[in-house]
Write a structure and sequence with these properties.
The chain has 227 residues and is an alpha/beta fold. 33% of the residues lie in helices and 26% in strands. The chain binds adenosine-5'-diphosphate (2 copies). It comes from Streptacidiphilus jiangxiensis.
Length: 227
């Protein structure tokens, strides 16, 4: 379980991005952070993998303050997916997906087999393995991004508006795929979106943030009060 305990983030320019946020994020389920642009969703996600340090409060992973662990070990336990996939442009699909396994010392053939397995898991035709990112549609790039994040089998997936830049039909396919993957693999997913419909569809728990980085509601979708 990830526990966000009274966490505040104030940036050096004085902006309060997150204000005394407390959330218990259960294991093996999807927790969605939703709210308007600027309400602190990305900042919260980045604090979980220590790309941003809180100004106050603490974050616990399985009962331990995340600052106790070496930052590299922490990040290896968390796959990260962003809006425009952030793929390495000069690497093929299979090389993108196998990046982390290769860094972990897997040999080429094992990393490649893992890459192909993951392409199938995220619904990508393995015939695309040798393409470069620019040769893929937006939706295909996002699938590669998800496969890459899953490559080293991290227990946690952090996803920052991963499907917001693709058209509605492709987005629906990606959402369905994520639900299937999460159910199969039992990942703990923290998913950021500004789209309340997406939050309701995907979330086991939904945290509604509002302006100033304050928590407005935290509940399963069926119990959310309409604002
Ligand atoms: P969201 O993901 O909900 O759009 P962010 O976490 O990106 O929100 O931003 C929350 C607030 O913090 C916004 O007011 C944003 O402008 C501000 N902010 C984000 N990053 C920085 C930064 N590096 N320096 C200063 N202010 C920032
Ligand atoms: P979308 O409308 O979803 O963005 P695209 O028009 O970018 O899709 O691509 C449609 C199909 O054409 C996809 O299957 C994609 O893999 C393929 N494709 C796009 N660009 C190239 C390219 N430069 N070389 C080979 N195939 C491509």
């Amino acid at each position: 379980m990830i526990v966000i305990d009274a966490v505040t983030k104030r940036y050096p320019d004085g902006t309060t991005a997150v204000d005394r946020l407390t959330l218990e994020i259960p294991d093996r389920s999807i927790t969605v952070l939703v709210g308007p642009s600027g309400c602190g969703k990305t900042t919260t996600l980045r604090m979980i993998n220590r790309m941003v340090d809180p100004s106050g409060g603490r974050i616990l992973l399985d009962g331990h303050d995340i600052r106790e662990r070496p930052v590299n070990a922490l990040r290896r336990s968390m796959g990260y997916v962003i809006q425009h996939a952030g793929l390495f442009p000069h690497r093929t699909v299979i090389e993108n997906i196998a990046t982390v396994p290769r860094l972990l010392g897997w040999d080429r053939s094992r990393a490649r087999a893992r890459g192909l397995e993951l392409m199938e898991r995220v619904g990508l035709d393995t015939a695309l393995a040798k393409r470069y990112p620019y040769q893929l549609s937006g939706g295909q790039q996002q699938r590669v991004g998800v496969a890459r994040a899953l490559a080293a089998d991290p227990p946690v997936l952090l996803m920052d508006e991963p499907f917001s830049a693709v058209d509605p039909i492709v987005r629906k396919g990606l959402q369905d795929e994520l639900l299937r993957i999460q159910a199969d693999l039992g990942k703990t997913v923290v998913f950021v979106t500004h789209d309340i419909d997406e939050a309701i569809k995907l979330g086991d728990m939904v945290a509604v943030l509002r302006e100033g980085g304050r928590l407005a509601q935290y509940a399963p979708p069926a119990e959310l009060l309409s604002a």
